[in-house]
Amino acid sequence: MATENAKKLNLKPVWIVLAFAALITIVLLPNNGDLPIVGQRALAILAFAVILWVTEAVSYPVSSAMILALIAVLLGLAPSMDDPAVQMGTNEALKLALGGFSSSSVALVGAALFLAAAMQITNLHKRIALWILSLVGTKTKALVVGAILVAIVLAFVVPSATARAGAVVPILLGIVAAFGLSKESKLAALLVITATQAVSIWNVGIKTAAAQNLVALGFINSEFGVDISWGEWFMYAAPFSVIMSFVLFFVMIKLIKPETDNIAGGKNIIRKQLDELGPLKRKEITLIVTSVLLLFFWSTEGKFHPFDTTTITILAIAFLLTPKVGVFNWKEASSRIDWGTLIVFAVGISLGTTLLNTKGAAWLSDTIFGSLGLDAMPILATIALVTVFNIVIHLGFASATSLASALIPVFIALAISLPMPAENQVGFVLIQQFVICFGFLLPVSAPQNMLAYGTGAFTTKDFLKSGIPLTIVGYILILLLSATYWKWIGLL
Protein backbone atom coordinates (compact mmCIF):
# COMPACT_ATOMS: atom_id res chain seq x y z
CA MET A 1 0.00 0.00 0.00
CA ALA A 2 2.82 2.38 0.86
CA THR A 3 4.40 1.73 -2.52
CA GLU A 4 1.10 2.43 -4.31
CA ASN A 5 0.69 5.68 -2.38
CA ALA A 6 4.25 6.68 -3.31
CA LYS A 7 3.46 6.04 -6.96
CA LYS A 8 0.34 8.19 -6.72
CA LEU A 9 2.23 11.01 -5.02
CA ASN A 10 2.75 13.78 -7.55
CA LEU A 11 5.70 15.94 -6.59
CA LYS A 12 5.60 18.13 -9.68
CA PRO A 13 3.72 21.00 -7.96
CA VAL A 14 6.30 20.89 -5.18
CA TRP A 15 9.16 21.23 -7.65
CA ILE A 16 7.42 24.12 -9.42
CA VAL A 17 6.96 25.94 -6.10
CA LEU A 18 10.61 25.22 -5.24
CA ALA A 19 11.73 26.62 -8.62
CA PHE A 20 9.82 29.87 -8.03
CA ALA A 21 11.09 30.03 -4.44
CA ALA A 22 14.69 29.77 -5.66
CA LEU A 23 14.00 32.41 -8.31
CA ILE A 24 12.51 34.90 -5.84
CA THR A 25 15.17 34.25 -3.20
CA ILE A 26 18.06 34.94 -5.59
CA VAL A 27 16.34 38.04 -7.01
CA LEU A 28 15.91 39.45 -3.48
CA LEU A 29 19.43 38.68 -2.24
CA PRO A 30 21.50 41.79 -1.38
CA ASN A 31 23.73 42.94 -4.25
CA ASN A 32 27.11 44.38 -3.24
CA GLY A 33 27.92 45.60 -6.74
CA ASP A 34 30.24 42.74 -7.75
CA LEU A 35 27.56 41.52 -10.14
CA PRO A 36 25.16 43.68 -12.19
CA ILE A 37 21.54 43.34 -11.07
CA VAL A 38 20.61 42.00 -14.51
CA GLY A 39 23.30 39.33 -14.02
CA GLN A 40 21.86 38.44 -10.62
CA ARG A 41 18.42 38.07 -12.14
CA ALA A 42 19.81 36.00 -15.01
CA LEU A 43 21.30 33.64 -12.41
CA ALA A 44 17.93 33.48 -10.64
CA ILE A 45 16.31 32.43 -13.92
CA LEU A 46 19.06 29.84 -14.43
CA ALA A 47 18.35 28.35 -10.97
CA PHE A 48 14.63 28.28 -11.83
CA ALA A 49 15.37 26.58 -15.16
CA VAL A 50 17.74 23.98 -13.71
CA ILE A 51 15.20 22.88 -11.09
CA LEU A 52 12.53 22.45 -13.76
CA TRP A 53 14.94 20.67 -16.13
CA VAL A 54 16.29 18.26 -13.52
CA THR A 55 12.92 17.39 -11.98
CA GLU A 56 10.95 17.55 -15.26
CA ALA A 57 8.16 19.20 -13.27
CA VAL A 58 6.91 20.60 -16.56
CA SER A 59 7.80 19.60 -20.11
CA TYR A 60 10.89 21.18 -21.67
CA PRO A 61 8.88 23.32 -24.13
CA VAL A 62 6.68 24.63 -21.28
CA SER A 63 9.74 25.48 -19.20
CA SER A 64 11.11 27.31 -22.24
CA ALA A 65 8.01 29.53 -22.45
CA MET A 66 8.35 30.31 -18.74
CA ILE A 67 12.04 31.17 -19.15
CA LEU A 68 11.29 33.51 -22.07
CA ALA A 69 8.68 35.35 -20.00
CA LEU A 70 10.97 35.65 -17.00
CA ILE A 71 13.87 37.03 -19.05
CA ALA A 72 11.60 39.64 -20.64
CA VAL A 73 10.00 40.75 -17.36
CA LEU A 74 12.74 40.41 -14.73
CA LEU A 75 15.57 41.77 -16.87
CA GLY A 76 13.29 44.37 -18.45
CA LEU A 77 12.52 45.83 -15.02
CA ALA A 78 16.18 45.71 -13.88
CA PRO A 79 18.63 48.62 -14.11
CA SER A 80 20.45 48.80 -17.44
CA MET A 81 24.11 47.74 -17.47
CA ASP A 82 25.00 50.80 -19.54
CA ASP A 83 23.12 53.26 -17.36
CA PRO A 84 21.93 51.93 -13.98
CA ALA A 85 19.77 55.04 -13.58
CA VAL A 86 17.31 53.69 -16.14
CA GLN A 87 15.64 50.34 -16.62
CA MET A 88 16.74 47.99 -19.37
CA GLY A 89 13.16 47.90 -20.63
CA THR A 90 11.12 44.88 -21.66
CA ASN A 91 11.76 45.55 -25.33
CA GLU A 92 15.54 45.20 -24.90
CA ALA A 93 15.12 42.24 -22.54
CA LEU A 94 12.84 40.53 -25.05
CA LYS A 95 15.57 40.88 -27.68
CA LEU A 96 17.84 38.89 -25.35
CA ALA A 97 15.10 36.33 -24.71
CA LEU A 98 14.48 35.78 -28.42
CA GLY A 99 18.12 36.08 -29.48
CA GLY A 100 18.58 32.32 -29.60
CA PHE A 101 15.98 31.99 -32.34
CA SER A 102 18.23 33.95 -34.71
CA SER A 103 21.18 31.60 -34.18
CA SER A 104 22.31 29.63 -37.23
CA SER A 105 22.65 26.65 -34.89
CA VAL A 106 18.86 26.61 -34.44
CA ALA A 107 18.42 26.51 -38.21
CA LEU A 108 20.85 23.58 -38.37
CA VAL A 109 18.97 21.69 -35.65
CA GLY A 110 15.72 22.30 -37.53
CA ALA A 111 17.26 21.00 -40.75
CA ALA A 112 18.65 17.99 -38.86
CA LEU A 113 15.16 17.16 -37.56
CA PHE A 114 13.87 17.21 -41.16
CA LEU A 115 16.71 14.94 -42.25
CA ALA A 116 15.92 12.49 -39.44
CA ALA A 117 12.24 12.58 -40.49
CA ALA A 118 13.25 11.78 -44.08
CA MET A 119 15.12 8.70 -42.83
CA GLN A 120 12.05 7.55 -40.88
CA ILE A 121 9.61 8.16 -43.73
CA THR A 122 11.71 6.22 -46.24
CA ASN A 123 12.83 3.59 -43.68
CA LEU A 124 16.37 4.08 -45.00
CA HIS A 125 17.89 4.05 -41.52
CA LYS A 126 16.26 0.65 -40.88
CA ARG A 127 17.56 -0.69 -44.19
CA ILE A 128 21.10 0.48 -43.36
CA ALA A 129 20.92 -1.14 -39.92
CA LEU A 130 19.65 -4.45 -41.32
CA TRP A 131 22.22 -4.45 -44.10
CA ILE A 132 25.11 -3.98 -41.66
CA LEU A 133 23.76 -6.70 -39.35
CA SER A 134 23.42 -9.06 -42.33
CA LEU A 135 27.13 -8.62 -43.05
CA VAL A 136 28.55 -9.24 -39.57
CA GLY A 137 26.97 -12.65 -38.95
CA THR A 138 24.85 -13.99 -36.10
CA LYS A 139 27.37 -15.03 -33.47
CA THR A 140 26.68 -12.94 -30.40
CA LYS A 141 30.08 -11.23 -30.51
CA ALA A 142 29.49 -10.42 -34.16
CA LEU A 143 26.09 -8.95 -33.30
CA VAL A 144 27.74 -6.76 -30.64
CA VAL A 145 30.14 -5.54 -33.33
CA GLY A 146 27.18 -5.04 -35.65
CA ALA A 147 25.28 -2.97 -33.08
CA ILE A 148 28.33 -0.71 -32.70
CA LEU A 149 28.85 -0.43 -36.46
CA VAL A 150 25.21 0.49 -37.02
CA ALA A 151 25.51 3.28 -34.44
CA ILE A 152 28.66 4.54 -36.16
CA VAL A 153 27.27 4.53 -39.70
CA LEU A 154 23.93 6.06 -38.70
CA ALA A 155 25.73 8.82 -36.76
CA PHE A 156 27.02 10.13 -40.09
CA VAL A 157 23.63 10.34 -41.77
CA VAL A 158 20.99 10.56 -39.00
CA PRO A 159 21.51 13.75 -36.94
CA SER A 160 19.39 12.57 -34.01
CA ALA A 161 20.57 10.24 -31.26
CA THR A 162 17.02 9.22 -30.40
CA ALA A 163 16.22 8.40 -34.03
CA ARG A 164 19.36 6.28 -34.31
CA ALA A 165 18.49 4.31 -31.20
CA GLY A 166 14.90 4.04 -32.41
CA ALA A 167 16.11 2.45 -35.65
CA VAL A 168 18.40 -0.24 -34.29
CA VAL A 169 16.86 -1.26 -30.93
CA PRO A 170 13.63 -2.77 -32.38
CA ILE A 171 15.67 -4.73 -34.95
CA LEU A 172 17.91 -6.20 -32.25
CA LEU A 173 14.91 -7.13 -30.10
CA GLY A 174 13.30 -8.74 -33.14
CA ILE A 175 16.35 -10.94 -33.64
CA VAL A 176 16.28 -11.94 -29.97
CA ALA A 177 12.55 -12.75 -30.10
CA ALA A 178 12.90 -14.79 -33.26
CA PHE A 179 15.41 -17.01 -31.46
CA GLY A 180 12.80 -17.69 -28.80
CA LEU A 181 14.31 -15.51 -26.08
CA SER A 182 12.37 -12.83 -24.23
CA LYS A 183 13.25 -9.16 -24.15
CA GLU A 184 14.27 -9.71 -20.51
CA SER A 185 17.01 -12.14 -21.61
CA LYS A 186 20.70 -11.45 -21.17
CA LEU A 187 21.18 -11.43 -24.93
CA ALA A 188 18.60 -8.64 -25.27
CA ALA A 189 20.29 -6.63 -22.52
CA LEU A 190 23.70 -7.15 -24.12
CA LEU A 191 22.65 -5.96 -27.58
CA VAL A 192 20.36 -3.08 -26.56
CA ILE A 193 22.80 -1.59 -24.04
CA THR A 194 25.64 -1.90 -26.56
CA ALA A 195 23.67 -0.07 -29.25
CA THR A 196 22.57 2.67 -26.85
CA GLN A 197 26.04 3.32 -25.42
CA ALA A 198 27.48 3.36 -28.94
CA VAL A 199 25.01 6.11 -29.87
CA SER A 200 26.29 8.25 -26.97
CA ILE A 201 29.92 7.54 -27.87
CA TRP A 202 29.40 8.79 -31.42
CA ASN A 203 27.53 11.87 -30.23
CA VAL A 204 31.05 12.95 -29.30
CA GLY A 205 32.72 12.00 -32.57
CA ILE A 206 30.49 13.80 -35.07
CA LYS A 207 29.47 17.44 -34.97
CA THR A 208 26.01 16.87 -36.45
CA ALA A 209 25.21 13.75 -34.42
CA ALA A 210 23.65 15.57 -31.45
CA ALA A 211 21.84 18.85 -30.80
CA GLN A 212 23.93 19.64 -27.72
CA ASN A 213 27.03 19.94 -29.91
CA LEU A 214 25.33 22.71 -31.85
CA VAL A 215 24.42 24.52 -28.62
CA ALA A 216 28.09 24.60 -27.67
CA LEU A 217 29.16 25.70 -31.13
CA GLY A 218 26.61 28.52 -31.06
CA PHE A 219 28.11 29.85 -27.83
CA ILE A 220 31.68 29.37 -29.08
CA ASN A 221 30.92 31.28 -32.27
CA SER A 222 29.18 34.07 -30.36
CA GLU A 223 31.89 34.57 -27.74
CA PHE A 224 35.09 33.69 -29.60
CA GLY A 225 34.06 34.43 -33.19
CA VAL A 226 35.27 30.96 -34.18
CA ASP A 227 33.51 28.53 -36.53
CA ILE A 228 34.47 24.88 -36.06
CA SER A 229 33.84 23.00 -39.28
CA TRP A 230 32.46 19.47 -39.50
CA GLY A 231 35.90 18.21 -40.57
CA GLU A 232 37.72 19.98 -37.72
CA TRP A 233 35.29 18.55 -35.15
CA PHE A 234 35.78 15.08 -36.64
CA MET A 235 39.57 15.45 -36.49
CA TYR A 236 39.38 16.47 -32.83
CA ALA A 237 36.74 14.03 -31.57
CA ALA A 238 36.70 10.95 -33.81
CA PRO A 239 39.82 9.37 -32.22
CA PHE A 240 38.04 9.46 -28.86
CA SER A 241 34.95 7.75 -30.29
CA VAL A 242 36.95 5.14 -32.20
CA ILE A 243 38.91 4.12 -29.10
CA MET A 244 35.76 4.12 -26.95
CA SER A 245 34.00 1.88 -29.49
CA PHE A 246 36.70 -0.77 -28.97
CA VAL A 247 36.43 -0.29 -25.20
CA LEU A 248 32.65 -0.70 -25.42
CA PHE A 249 32.99 -4.04 -27.24
CA PHE A 250 35.29 -5.52 -24.59
CA VAL A 251 33.30 -4.09 -21.69
CA MET A 252 30.05 -5.56 -22.99
CA ILE A 253 31.29 -9.06 -23.84
CA LYS A 254 32.92 -9.30 -20.39
CA LEU A 255 29.98 -7.75 -18.57
CA ILE A 256 27.02 -9.77 -19.87
CA LYS A 257 27.22 -13.45 -20.78
CA PRO A 258 24.30 -14.23 -23.12
CA GLU A 259 22.32 -17.45 -23.21
CA THR A 260 23.80 -18.44 -26.57
CA ASP A 261 26.94 -17.80 -28.59
CA ASN A 262 25.18 -18.04 -31.92
CA ILE A 263 21.66 -17.29 -33.16
CA ALA A 264 20.65 -20.15 -35.41
CA GLY A 265 18.78 -18.81 -38.40
CA GLY A 266 19.67 -15.26 -37.46
CA LYS A 267 20.75 -14.40 -40.98
CA ASN A 268 17.39 -15.63 -42.29
CA ILE A 269 15.60 -13.39 -39.80
CA ILE A 270 17.53 -10.34 -40.97
CA ARG A 271 17.15 -11.31 -44.63
CA LYS A 272 13.38 -11.69 -44.17
CA GLN A 273 13.13 -8.18 -42.70
CA LEU A 274 15.19 -6.81 -45.58
CA ASP A 275 12.94 -8.61 -48.06
CA GLU A 276 9.90 -7.04 -46.39
CA LEU A 277 11.38 -3.63 -47.16
CA GLY A 278 11.56 -4.64 -50.81
CA PRO A 279 14.07 -3.31 -53.34
CA LEU A 280 15.57 0.15 -52.99
CA LYS A 281 12.95 2.71 -53.92
CA ARG A 282 13.48 5.94 -55.83
CA LYS A 283 13.04 8.03 -52.69
CA GLU A 284 15.60 5.96 -50.78
CA ILE A 285 18.11 6.32 -53.61
CA THR A 286 17.49 10.07 -53.65
CA LEU A 287 18.06 10.24 -49.90
CA ILE A 288 21.23 8.12 -50.13
CA VAL A 289 22.70 10.40 -52.81
CA THR A 290 21.69 13.50 -50.83
CA SER A 291 23.23 12.09 -47.62
CA VAL A 292 26.48 11.20 -49.36
CA LEU A 293 26.68 14.68 -50.89
CA LEU A 294 25.93 16.20 -47.48
CA LEU A 295 28.76 14.21 -45.93
CA PHE A 296 31.11 15.38 -48.66
CA PHE A 297 30.18 19.04 -48.28
CA TRP A 298 30.22 18.84 -44.47
CA SER A 299 33.65 17.23 -44.37
CA THR A 300 35.15 19.63 -46.93
CA GLU A 301 33.68 22.79 -45.38
CA GLY A 302 36.16 25.66 -45.69
CA LYS A 303 38.41 23.66 -48.05
CA PHE A 304 36.76 23.01 -51.43
CA HIS A 305 33.76 25.32 -51.17
CA PRO A 306 32.57 28.43 -49.27
CA PHE A 307 29.39 26.94 -47.75
CA ASP A 308 29.00 26.41 -43.99
CA THR A 309 27.34 23.33 -42.47
CA THR A 310 24.02 25.06 -41.80
CA THR A 311 23.62 26.45 -45.32
CA ILE A 312 24.49 23.11 -46.91
CA THR A 313 21.98 21.25 -44.73
CA ILE A 314 19.18 23.75 -45.41
CA LEU A 315 19.84 23.44 -49.15
CA ALA A 316 19.57 19.64 -48.83
CA ILE A 317 16.26 19.88 -46.95
CA ALA A 318 14.88 22.32 -49.52
CA PHE A 319 15.71 19.79 -52.24
CA LEU A 320 14.20 16.87 -50.29
CA LEU A 321 10.95 18.85 -49.89
CA THR A 322 10.75 19.75 -53.59
CA PRO A 323 7.74 18.07 -55.28
CA LYS A 324 8.46 15.29 -57.79
CA VAL A 325 12.21 15.10 -57.07
CA GLY A 326 12.21 15.11 -53.24
CA VAL A 327 11.33 12.35 -50.78
CA PHE A 328 8.58 13.88 -48.63
CA ASN A 329 6.14 16.76 -48.40
CA TRP A 330 5.68 19.31 -45.64
CA LYS A 331 2.74 17.49 -44.03
CA GLU A 332 4.67 14.20 -43.83
CA ALA A 333 7.75 15.90 -42.41
CA SER A 334 6.10 18.23 -39.91
CA SER A 335 4.02 15.46 -38.36
CA ARG A 336 7.22 13.62 -37.43
CA ILE A 337 9.12 16.60 -36.03
CA ASP A 338 9.04 17.55 -32.37
CA TRP A 339 8.83 21.31 -32.75
CA GLY A 340 9.25 21.67 -29.00
CA THR A 341 12.85 20.52 -29.46
CA LEU A 342 13.56 23.59 -31.58
CA ILE A 343 11.99 25.90 -29.00
CA VAL A 344 13.97 24.32 -26.16
CA PHE A 345 17.16 24.58 -28.19
CA ALA A 346 16.63 28.26 -29.05
CA VAL A 347 15.65 29.25 -25.52
CA GLY A 348 18.68 27.39 -24.13
CA ILE A 349 20.92 29.51 -26.36
CA SER A 350 19.05 32.66 -25.30
CA LEU A 351 19.50 31.86 -21.61
CA GLY A 352 23.19 31.04 -22.03
CA THR A 353 23.81 34.19 -24.06
CA THR A 354 21.98 36.23 -21.44
CA LEU A 355 24.21 34.77 -18.71
CA LEU A 356 27.30 35.69 -20.72
CA ASN A 357 26.15 39.19 -21.67
CA THR A 358 25.05 40.11 -18.14
CA LYS A 359 28.26 38.80 -16.49
CA GLY A 360 26.22 36.16 -14.66
CA ALA A 361 28.24 33.29 -16.20
CA ALA A 362 31.56 34.91 -15.24
CA TRP A 363 30.38 35.43 -11.65
CA LEU A 364 29.11 31.85 -11.41
CA SER A 365 32.37 30.48 -12.86
CA ASP A 366 34.41 32.46 -10.34
CA THR A 367 32.15 31.33 -7.49
CA ILE A 368 32.35 27.64 -8.43
CA PHE A 369 35.96 27.41 -9.54
CA GLY A 370 37.63 30.56 -8.18
CA SER A 371 38.57 29.10 -4.80
CA LEU A 372 40.32 26.15 -6.47
CA GLY A 373 43.11 28.32 -7.84
CA LEU A 374 42.74 26.91 -11.34
CA ASP A 375 44.62 29.83 -12.89
CA ALA A 376 47.80 28.64 -11.17
CA MET A 377 47.34 24.98 -12.11
CA PRO A 378 48.61 23.20 -15.22
CA ILE A 379 45.91 23.01 -17.88
CA LEU A 380 45.73 19.20 -17.55
CA ALA A 381 44.92 19.47 -13.83
CA THR A 382 42.24 22.04 -14.61
CA ILE A 383 40.69 19.75 -17.22
CA ALA A 384 40.80 16.85 -14.74
CA LEU A 385 38.92 18.80 -12.04
CA VAL A 386 36.37 20.46 -14.33
CA THR A 387 35.64 17.16 -16.10
CA VAL A 388 34.80 15.47 -12.78
CA PHE A 389 32.45 18.37 -11.99
CA ASN A 390 30.88 18.01 -15.45
CA ILE A 391 30.31 14.25 -15.07
CA VAL A 392 28.75 14.60 -11.60
CA ILE A 393 26.42 17.44 -12.68
CA HIS A 394 25.26 15.32 -15.63
CA LEU A 395 23.70 12.83 -13.18
CA GLY A 396 20.91 15.31 -12.55
CA PHE A 397 20.10 16.16 -16.17
CA ALA A 398 17.93 14.15 -18.55
CA SER A 399 18.76 16.45 -21.46
CA ALA A 400 22.30 17.05 -22.68
CA THR A 401 20.96 20.06 -24.62
CA SER A 402 19.78 21.66 -21.38
CA LEU A 403 23.04 20.71 -19.69
CA ALA A 404 25.03 22.38 -22.46
CA SER A 405 22.82 25.47 -22.21
CA ALA A 406 23.54 25.71 -18.48
CA LEU A 407 27.23 24.78 -18.38
CA ILE A 408 28.89 25.90 -21.63
CA PRO A 409 28.52 29.63 -20.76
CA VAL A 410 30.14 28.88 -17.39
CA PHE A 411 32.98 26.97 -19.06
CA ILE A 412 33.47 29.82 -21.55
CA ALA A 413 33.74 32.32 -18.68
CA LEU A 414 36.19 29.99 -16.91
CA ALA A 415 38.30 29.52 -20.06
CA ILE A 416 38.53 33.29 -20.57
CA SER A 417 39.76 33.69 -17.00
CA LEU A 418 42.54 31.12 -17.46
CA PRO A 419 46.03 32.16 -18.66
CA MET A 420 45.95 30.55 -22.11
CA PRO A 421 45.78 31.69 -25.76
CA ALA A 422 42.32 32.27 -27.25
CA GLU A 423 42.54 29.19 -29.52
CA ASN A 424 43.26 27.02 -26.48
CA GLN A 425 40.30 28.56 -24.65
CA VAL A 426 38.11 27.29 -27.48
CA GLY A 427 39.72 23.87 -27.14
CA PHE A 428 39.08 23.80 -23.40
CA VAL A 429 35.38 24.52 -23.90
CA LEU A 430 35.13 21.99 -26.74
CA ILE A 431 36.60 19.23 -24.59
CA GLN A 432 34.02 19.91 -21.89
CA GLN A 433 31.33 19.65 -24.56
CA PHE A 434 32.66 16.20 -25.42
CA VAL A 435 32.16 15.28 -21.75
CA ILE A 436 28.61 16.66 -21.77
CA CYS A 437 27.87 14.04 -24.46
CA PHE A 438 28.90 11.14 -22.21
CA GLY A 439 25.52 10.06 -20.78
CA PHE A 440 26.88 6.57 -20.05
CA LEU A 441 25.87 6.12 -16.42
CA LEU A 442 22.08 6.08 -16.06
CA PRO A 443 19.02 5.52 -18.27
CA VAL A 444 17.89 9.07 -17.38
CA SER A 445 21.17 10.56 -18.60
CA ALA A 446 20.02 10.83 -22.24
CA PRO A 447 16.80 10.49 -24.29
CA GLN A 448 18.20 7.55 -26.29
CA ASN A 449 18.90 5.75 -23.01
CA MET A 450 15.30 6.26 -21.90
CA LEU A 451 13.99 5.01 -25.25
CA ALA A 452 16.01 1.81 -24.87
CA TYR A 453 15.15 1.46 -21.16
CA GLY A 454 11.45 1.69 -22.06
CA THR A 455 11.71 -1.63 -23.93
CA GLY A 456 12.29 -3.46 -20.62
CA ALA A 457 15.38 -5.19 -22.02
CA PHE A 458 17.61 -4.17 -19.12
CA THR A 459 17.55 -2.75 -15.61
CA THR A 460 19.11 0.43 -14.28
CA LYS A 461 21.65 -1.78 -12.52
CA ASP A 462 22.60 -3.44 -15.84
CA PHE A 463 23.10 -0.06 -17.46
CA LEU A 464 25.13 1.26 -14.55
CA LYS A 465 27.43 -1.78 -14.73
CA SER A 466 28.36 -0.81 -18.26
CA GLY A 467 28.26 2.92 -17.58
CA ILE A 468 30.78 2.97 -14.73
CA PRO A 469 33.71 1.43 -16.67
CA LEU A 470 32.82 3.46 -19.78
CA THR A 471 32.79 6.69 -17.77
CA ILE A 472 36.09 5.87 -16.04
CA VAL A 473 37.80 4.96 -19.32
CA GLY A 474 36.25 7.99 -21.02
CA TYR A 475 37.57 10.26 -18.26
CA ILE A 476 41.09 8.79 -18.51
CA LEU A 477 40.97 9.06 -22.30
CA ILE A 478 39.98 12.75 -22.10
CA LEU A 479 43.07 13.39 -19.96
CA LEU A 480 45.31 11.24 -22.16
CA LEU A 481 44.22 12.98 -25.37
CA SER A 482 44.54 16.36 -23.65
CA ALA A 483 48.15 15.56 -22.76
CA THR A 484 49.02 14.19 -26.19
CA TYR A 485 46.93 14.29 -29.37
CA TRP A 486 44.92 17.45 -28.70
CA LYS A 487 48.08 19.22 -27.60
CA TRP A 488 49.98 18.08 -30.72
CA ILE A 489 47.31 19.35 -33.12
CA GLY A 490 46.96 22.69 -31.33
CA LEU A 491 43.56 22.26 -29.70
CA LEU A 492 45.19 22.83 -26.28
Any descriptors?
492 residues, mainly alpha, 0% strand, globular
Any chance you could write out the topology, listing elements then pairs?
Elements: H1 2-8, H2 12-28, H3 37-55, H4 60-76, H5 90-98, H6 104-122, H7 124-136, H8 140-157, H9 161-178, H10 186-205, H11 211-224, H12 230-255, H13 266-277, H14 282-299, H15 309-321, H16 330-334, H17 339-357, H18 360-369, H19 379-394, H20 400-417, H21 422-436, H22 447-453, H23 460-483, H24 485-488
Helix pairs in contact: 2-3, 3-4, 3-17, 3-18, 4-5, 4-17, 6-11, 6-15, 7-8, 7-9, 7-13, 8-9, 8-10, 8-12, 9-10, 9-22, 10-12, 11-17, 11-20, 11-21, 12-23, 14-15, 17-20, 18-20, 19-21, 19-23, 20-21
Describe the protein in words.
The protein has helices at residues 2-8, 12-28, 37-55, 60-76, 90-98, 104-122, 124-136, 140-157, 161-178, 186-205, 211-224, 230-255, 266-277, 282-299, 309-321, 330-334, 339-357, 360-369, 379-394, 400-417, 422-436, 447-453, 460-483, 485-488. With 492 residues, it is mainly α. The longest helix has 26 residues, at 230-255. The relative contact order is 0.13.
Task: Summarize the entry for a quick read.
The protein has 492 residues and is mostly helical. It has helices at residues 2-8, 12-28, 37-55, 60-76, 90-98, 104-122, 124-136, 140-157, 161-178, 186-205, 211-224, 230-255, 266-277, 282-299, 309-321, 330-334, 339-357, 360-369, 379-394, 400-417, 422-436, 447-453, 460-483, 485-488.
